[in-house]
Sequence to fold (194 residues):
Amino acid sequence: MNFLAHIYLSFNDDEITIGNFIADSIRGNKFKHLPERVQKGILLHRDIDTFTDSHPIPKLSSKRLHKNYSHYSRVIVDIFYDHFLAKNWETYSTVPLATFVDDFYDLLEDHYPILPDGVKRMMPYMISDNWIFNYAKMDGIARVLNGMNRRTKNRSKMNFAILDLEEHYDAFKSEFTEFFEELLVFSRQKFISL
Fold:
């Protein structure tokens, strides 16, 4: 799952949210200096990723992309799934997406001193271009995919994946919807056990 899902699956716990968000920037166990609930957020993120990577539905979505994007197909699916979460936000939250995202950006700024350097470098761009809110729009997803392609020095060709999303939109949406219900149950159980 991508940024929005990880934030949402932190169930409004500020420190869990920070940990869940920064987890990809932290290798191994190099997080023991962080507050305890931030550490738990990192572990929750890893559990979510493990569940997602081993689940047959995201694998099915990824298989549809694998021919054109190889090992990048899983990353693309994560981005597509965040699109469907953002696009159908009112199904999952009573808080408007714009408010949810603004509150998250404020939370990041409040915890700035403990953020990894990579997150600190990314933050101004993410906030000024409002990446997370714009996941709900096709042009927002196209910008994310273009940015990811640039990060791979144009090797991934991820910028073309917007065409795959348009062509198979209903299939990806159906797969996301079914999978996310299971992920919600799994994540809530993990959160309760933290």
Summary: The chain has one domain: 56-193. Residues 56-193 form one domain. The first helix runs from residue 3 to 8. The radius of gyration is 16 Å.
